[in-house]
Write a structure and sequence with these properties.
Chain B: It holds the Pfam family ANAPC2. Chain B: Residues 494-785 form the Cullin family profile domain. Chain B: GO terms for molecular function: ubiquitin protein ligase binding. Chain B: It comes from Mytilinidion resinicola. Chain B: Residues 622-641 are annotated as: Disordered. The structure holds 2 protein chains of 2 kinds. Chain A is α+β, with helices and mostly antiparallel strands. Chain A has a single domain, classed as Ubiquitin Conjugating Enzyme. Chain A has helices at residues 3-40, 123-135, 145-153, 155-165; strands spanning 45-49, 56-62, 73-79, 90-93. Chain B is mostly helical. Among the domains of chain B are: 686-746 and 757-805 and 824-839, Ribosomal Protein S5, domain 2 (2-Layer Sandwich); 847-918, Arc Repressor Mutant, subunit A (Orthogonal Bundle). In chain B, the strands form 5 sheets. Chain B has a 3-stranded antiparallel β-sheet with strand order 3-4-5. In chain B, α15 (346-366) crosses α17. Chain B is rod-shaped, with a radius of gyration of 51 Å. The termini of chain B are far apart. Classes of the chains: A alpha+beta, B mainly alpha. Chain A binds chain B through residues 31, 34-35, 37-39, 41, 46-52, 54, 57-60, 73, 75, 169, 171-174, and chain B through 857, 860-861, 863-865, 867-871, 883-884, 886, 909-912, 915-920.
């Protein structure tokens, strides 16, 4: 084993001891966020952890009224890093969506999820920003160029594509 | 005689056939002449010899059979017993016998009948004709038990007589000749053929065997062996003085038989039966049956009694009996019955002992549950079972039987949890005695533990019981039906064994005393060296659940506590700490420290107050008409709770009140550590509110600006009411004090109200005035009505009862000494008050109340869960709730289902089968 290997393996060993404490902090923070989310219950947005460790959540956004997304609902996944809330969570659209700032894999181009992230944001504010992004796309830096173009030029075609792309939950209606 | 005639004769007795008149005497037979010979010539040629022998044999036969034939007399007892007088045994007879038996007249094999055969046949016919009817009269019908003995004796007597009758001619006349002949043969000729030597013995044996076969066939075999078996059993019972319940009452025992005589009687009978051929294997079988049954009866009769007083096992007695009572009898009987003598082996005795213990054990196991309930006194029985457990299959039998008994008699809705807990403790103790390594206990207790876990009140009862002091005189007021298990409380008094052995013993390599688990242990078997009952109870639940419950109950206890030192609670907390570990009980410790600290703070604050304020008159406005004063007395804990709102270290305070006129004592609680407390808000009486403010101010001075949040509904007040004709003293709940205080006339009302009539208040008025929950107002009103202070003048309107109504004539008999309620209505009301006092809500919010309080939150969680995670069954919802709800979700799947059903009714959620999902 070379020295370099040794170094990396040591480096790998050291983090867990730190991360257990930070994990506990993250969990505590997420617990609080969940509680707040539950207490405030903003209509149209909702989120819930996938399992016990709280590091992965699923969220649901209802498309805002008076936008092409009205009446549709979208599922998102949240994945929180152990450094949360110092670094932003990874957020992806799980439901296929046609939107200028969201690519076909569900990746989102939103400043507060990138360089503009701040520890005062939380799940709720992220979801609210995303909800408003649906109605007000940032066409200056599109991930989906066609969508950015159609948004202004042909709203009817845009609407058609949104509906064509959208897939409802496979879950059976109860 | 040929075969056909024999058959004919056996069916239709023809005397003439049995011994014939020889032909030569009637008509001399000359034979036939051969062709070519002269007829009737005296030289008959070759055939003459054989013809001559025929004639001679016929003659001899006739003589011999005539001599030997049995008396043809109609059946009569007298004749049978009378010795048969034979015709004189002349020389011709002897010659004829010799001729036929050993001489030339011996029957040729297969062709001619021999004399012995003939005699055997003669006997058979005689028996069928003259003896059999007598036997049939005995055996044809069922033999009643009480007649069995006589029947056997009679049979034996008859058979013995006829046997003598039959054997006599045979032995006297036939046998000697045969014997003589065989003696001759052996002495004169050296022959290696042993058959000739033994011929006479063989003949005699054969004759006897035929005879015995005849006898045996005359009796119905089943009935005979049953009767014999019964007689032996009965004899055994009488011999050992067994009490037998035959359905008609107990038999035997009291009629004390002469034991040696009885024993001889039995042996004699058996000997007699053996003599007439009724012994042997059949009788041995019957005897075995009898002894088998006898052992059972004997155990039931003598050993089913449990020695409740000396608490000793009776196994040794039983062994002794088998060795010294049972086996000698068997030995004696076997000596009589056995064809060849067989001695009773030592290991036979051992086997019988084991058999006896097995039976006793099985009988004991059937009643194990009763022994458990009466544990301690039933130690003897348990020790018996312990001995029984050494038998193969005993453990399986025990655990099966016991779990049946438990499910039938214990684990049903009719048994109180307290009872089940008590029984469980007895089970633990008894099984520890039975099998110290605990495998059986684990198996037996599993259903009980599972059932106890399912009961809602188990944890509460266990913990309340742990907190109860058995030696406390207060404990006496709890009846046997109360929710306190005295067994648990008593168990708590015992010294504590060390709980240091938490670690896995199997991994302790240096343990020199290590032993493998018992081979019948289940995989999750844990060897518990400590026979500690509390340990078993505390492991019923997860530790966390238990501690939560403990917090609730301890909180309630502390808030109600009268003892300023909280000695008992401290001690019990220490005990529980030892058992559950220090680390988990931090909250409980803080709670205890809070109340102790409060006492100190009260002393310092109230002490400080004395010099400057004790002289100050209290702001009470005594109404001339209604002198119902709320006067708080020194040791009065009118309580309120204060909470320090800082999120990091919330401190709550519960205030009591004392001083000379009004005193306020507070209990300052750290809300973070306490279970949720009752937070009903209402207006406390003005003087108390003043005191609260003063206390608060001083507290803030002492404790460096920490703030108090009052919880007025917790705590108690001592109240003295001055009514027109009496004074009422009571220690009451704070809201009750507030309500009665509100009955003081307001200044505006003073002039209007009449002197005779107290101030009246309606329920809505009080609710408004005090800003108190209506439920609490009503509770207080009922309480005061019960105390005879208030009366309901109109529906929902109450007034002070200034003077008690004069007792009516009918009530006088029921009156009491002055000062106490003197009318029967008052008695009834007092009962109502007691009932109301019972209903007092506890200071700590129960889990059910918490469910109602937290329901909106839970609904949010459920909605969030179903929206984002998709459809799921209630079980999954429960699991998720338990994981994500802060502080845990202390309910079960039933509550979750109810919650979901509620949401379904509101249309927010849809459910198909057992799966629920959001309705869009």
């Amino acid at each position: 084993m070379s020295n370099a290997d040794m170094a990396t393996s040591e480096a790998k060993i050291s983090p867990p001891s730190r991360s257990t404490t930070s994990n506990a902090n993250v969990t505590k923070r997420l617990q609080t966020e969940l509680m707040n989310l539950m207490m405030s219950s903003t209509p149209g947005i909702s989120a819930f952890p996938n399992d016990e460790n709280l590091m992965k959540w699923t969220a649901t956004i209802d498309g805002p009224e008076d936008t092409p997304y009205a009446g549709l609902s979208f599922k998102l996944s949240f994945e929180f890093p152990t450094t949360y809330p110092l670094t932003p969570p990874t957020v992806l659209f799980k439901t296929p969506i046609y939107h200028p700032n969201i690519d076909f894999s569900g990746r989102i181009c939103l400043d507060i999820l990138k360089d503009k992230w701040s520890a005062i944001y939380n799940v709720q504010s992220v979801l609210l920003s995303l909800q408003s992004l649906l109605g007000e796309p940032n066409n200056a830096s599109p991930l989906n160029g066609q969508a950015a173009e159609l948004w202004d030029s042909d709203p009817a075609e845009y609407q058609r594509l949104v509906l064509a792309r959208h897939r409802d939950d496979e879950e059976t209606e109860l | 005689m040929d075969h056909q005639s024999l058959v004919f004769a056996s069916v239709f007795p023809v005397p003439a056939l049995s011994h014939t008149t020889p032909t030569p005497i009637a008509t001399p037979e000359l034979g036939f002449t051969a062709p070519g010979q002269s007829f009737g010539g005296p030289f008959g040629g070759a055939s003459a010899g054989s013809q001559h022998r025929e004639v001679k044999r016929n003659l001899a036969w006739s003589t011999a059979t005539r001599f030997l034939s049995l008396p043809k007399l109609p059946h009569d007892e007298g004749h049978l017993s009378a010795r048969v007088v034979h015709i004189h045994k002349g020389k011709d007879v002897v010659e004829a016998l010799e001729y036929l038996l050993v001489g030339e007249g011996q029957g040729e094999e297969g062709k001619e009948e021999s004399l012995v055969d003939w005699y055997t046949n003669e006997v058979r016919i005689h028996f069928v004709n003259y003896v059999h009817p007598a036997l049939r009269s005995i055996w044809d019908n069922e033999i009643a038990c009480q007649n069995a003995w006589e029947a056997l004796e009679e049979t034996q007597r008859i058979l013995l007589q006829v046997q003598q009758l039959y054997l006599q001619p045979f032995n006297n006349h036939i046998l000697p000749i045969l014997e003589h002949e065989s003696a001759n043969t052996t002495s004169s000729t050296i022959r290696l053929d042993t058959t000739a030597e033994d011929q006479h013995i063989f003949a005699s044996w054969k004759f006897q065997r035929d005879l015995h076969g005849l006898f045996a066939h005359a009796l119905p075999p089943q009935r005979f062996s049953k009767t014999l078996s019964y007689v032996l059993y009965n004899g055994g019972c009488r011999l050992f003085r067994v009490y037998v319940d035959n359905g008609l009452g107990f038999v035997g025992g009291d009629a004390l038989d002469d034991v040696p005589k009885l024993r001889n009687g039995i042996l004699q009978l058996l000997r007699g039966l053996q003599d007439v051929g009724l012994g042997g294997e059949q009788a041995q079988k019957a005897f075995a049956h009898a002894m088998d049954k006898l052992m059972g009866s004997f155990i039931v009769s003598h050993y089913m009694k449990v020695d409740w007083f000396s608490r000793k096992s009776i196994i040794n007695h039983l062994r002794q009996w088998v060795k010294d009572g049972f086996s000698p009898l068997v030995r004696q009987v076997m000596e009589v019955l056995a064809d060849e003598p067989k001695s009773v082996q030592a290991n036979d005795v051992q086997q019988w002992q084991d058999m006896a213990i097995g039976r006793l054990g099985r009988a004991r196991v059937e009643n194990l549950f009763d022994f458990i309930i009466n544990w301690d006194k039933s130690l003897g029985a348990i020790l018996d079972i312990k001995e029984y457990l050494k038998m193969p299959g005993a453990k399986v039998n025990l655990s099966n039987s016991f779990s049946q008994q438990v499910s039938r008699r214990l684990l049903h809705a009719g048994a109180t949890t307290t009872f089940i807990l008590n029984v469980y403790i007895y089970v633990i103790r008894a099984f520890n005695e039975l099998e110290p390594n605990g495998v059986l206990l684990e198996r037996a207790a599993r259903p009980i533990r599972r059932y106890l876990k399912g009961r809602e009140d188990t944890a509460r009862i266990v913990i309340s019981s742990l907190l109860t002091d058995v030696e406390d005189e207060n404990a006496a007021k709890f009846g046997p039906t109360s929710e306190i298990s005295h067994e648990i409380a008593a168990e708590m008094q015992k010294p504590i064994a060390s709980f240091a052995q938490e670690q896995d013993d199997d991994l302790n390599w240096s343990d020199m005393n290590w032993q493998p688990h018992p081979m019948d242990a289940s995989p999750d078997y844990r060897k518990s060296k400590v026979e500690d009952v509390i340990w078993f109870l505390l492991t019923l639940y997860d530790r966390e659940d238990f501690i939560n419950e403990l917090k609730q109950i301890l909180g309630d206890y502390l808030l109600r506590g009268h003892d300023p030192e909280y000695e008992k609670e401290t001690r019990l907390l220490e005990l529980i700490k030892l058992r559950l570990g220090d680390d988990k009980l931090q909250a409980c410790e803080v709670m205890l420290r809070d109340v102790l600290e409060s006492n100190r703070i009260n002393a310092s604050i109230n002490g400080e107050k004395k010099p400057d304020e004790s002289a100050m008159p209290l702001p009470i406005t005594p109404s001339p008409h209604t002198p119902a004063n709320n006067q708080a007395q020194p040791r009065t804990p009118a309580a309120a709770q204060a909470r320090y709102p800082a999120p990091s270290t919330p401190v709550a305070a519960l205030i009591k009140q004392p001083p000379a006129e009004h005193t306020l004592n507070a209990q300052i609680l750290s809300s973070f550590f306490w279970p949720p407390l009752r937070e009903d808000e209402f207006h406390v009486p003005a003087p108390i509110a003043t005191l609260q403010r003063e206390y608060e101010a001083r507290f803030e001075r002492v404790k460096g600006m920490r703030k108090l949040r009052w919880l007025p509904s917790l705590g108690r007040a001592k109240v003295e009411l001055h009514l027109t004709d009496r004074t009422v003293d009571a220690e009451v709940q704070t809201w009750q004090a507030s309500v009665i205080y509100a009955f003081q006339a307001l200044p505006a009302e003073n002039r209007n109200s009449k002197a005779e009539e107290g101030v009246a208040r309606a329920v809505p008025q009080l609710v408004e005035l005090l800003e108190m929950d209506e439920g609490l107002v009503r509770n207080a009103l009922v309480f005061w009505v019960g105390m005879g202070v208030l009366q309901e003048v109109r529906p929902d309107v109450y007034a002070i009862l200034e003077t008690l109504p004069k007792p009516s004539a009918a009530d006088i008999t029921a009156t009491d000494t002055a000062g106490n309620p003197t009318t029967s209505t008052a008695v009834v009301a007092a009962a109502a008050a007691a009932a109301a006092a019972e209903l007092q809500p506890s200071g700590v919010v129960s889990t059910t109340e918490q469910l109602a309080q937290n329901k909106p939150l839970y609904r949010q969680f459920v909605m969030g869960m179903l929206t984002n995670q998709g459809n799921m069954p209630p079980v999954r919802v429960l699991m998720m709730l338990k994981m994500v709800v802060p502080g845990g979700f202390p309910y079960g799947v039933e509550e979750v289902r109810a919650l979901l059903e509620e949401l379904v009714e509101e249309g927010k959620v849809g459910g198909v089968g057992d799966v629920f999902g959001v309705r869009k």
